[in-house]
Amino acid sequence: MPEPGTSTTPKPALMPGIIDRTLLRPAEEFWRDHQKWLQDCGYMLRPRYVPGWQPSWIGKSGKLILEYEDAQIIVGTTIGDATRISDGAYVTLKVVASSINGHEVEIATFLSSQALRTDPHNHCVPIYETLKMPDDDDKTILVMPFLRSWYNPRLQTVGEAVDLFGQLFEGLQFMHKHHVAHRDISDLNVMMDGAMYPNSWHPCNNDLDRFDPSLPAKHYTRSERPPKYYFIDFGLSRRYDPKDGPPLEPIIRGGDKSVPEFQNSNAPCNPFPTDIYYMGNFIREQVLQVYKGLGFMESLVADMVQDDPAKRPSIDEVATRFSIIRKKLGTIKLRSRIGRRTEIFGLVRDLAHIFTSAKYVLQGIDPIPTR
């Protein structure tokens, strides 16, 4: 019997826009083709990618196809997920091509080395293991924790936002202390662990239960189960020797295309002030422009995103100024709700939040989440 995705038998035409989930898409075939090797390495892919897989919904009724776990589709060949056989931990698998991102494996493993991994200030995604692909000398798989986007679920309190800012500044300070410039800090490259999700979530849809996509993924708030935030994706990152003096690098544009020093010049730039801009612009666009009640960060962020790189503070100066800002915030302010600027029923949510705050006080939950 031919495996799904390899049959040449004509199938009935589907309506435009409808995906035939009984067949593996080309991007999925990569994972199916490497399933046995990954299993031998100690990592089990989801049932959909086991050779010989047959859709579990065939011949069944009462549920939508999308409510079956094995109907969920990986959209690319560079990021996959698996279960570590030794302990059942969920992990992310990232395929790195050295011909494209020649420094990524080196820098990611350096930042996750034994000497640095246990440092509480380290917010670089841990690398559990590197797997050299047996059929492609150019590619390595990085085995990492199973993380989710930093913004989902939403921030709810000033204290939760302060915790986010503090962890990100701490993490960038750690990288710069070890002479690594990230060079691509953006919305896509900040993530968080699954502390809020006791039963995890589905890798193809963060809002759904891992094993039963017909159910929402159960979760707590950031205040109740504080997450740890991580920087990921070191494909553009570089590590420098301080003996060589301030580095100058050719322009490489990451996800954020707005860097002032990249706009009208191709001259080499010091990547460390550019990191400060990336970090400040991330906070400005993804947090301050989205949520109300965080005006206390505006002055610091404005300095971080100045057009002249020489006028931006170093990350040590940023951390010092943020510490002063944080100490000035009282308990009532920290427990207050931050609504989205576009919300409609803000007053109703503000009233409901009074009871949430009271619950947190009774439960002994700190106004700034602590792990």
Automatic annotation (TrEMBL):
Q: Which residues form a coiled coil?
A: none
InterPro entries named among the record's database cross-references: Kinase-like_dom_sf (IPR011009), Prot_kinase_dom (IPR000719)
Give the matching SUPFAM superfamilies. Answer: Protein kinase-like (PK-like)
**Domain of life here?**
Eukaryota
**Gene3D superfamilies recorded:** Transferase(Phosphotransferase) domain 1 (1.10.510.10)
UniProt GO MF annotations: ATP binding; protein serine/threonine kinase activity
Entry GO terms, CC = nucleus
Give residue ranges for domain Protein kinase: 68-356
**Can you supply a Gene Ontology BP term from the record?**
mitotic DNA damage checkpoint signaling
- What this protein is called in its record is Protein kinase domain-containing protein
**Per the UniProt entry, what species is this protein from, by scientific name?**
Piloderma croceum (strain F 1598)
Q: Organism classification, top ranks?
A: Eukaryota, Fungi, Dikarya, Basidiomycota, Agaricomycotina
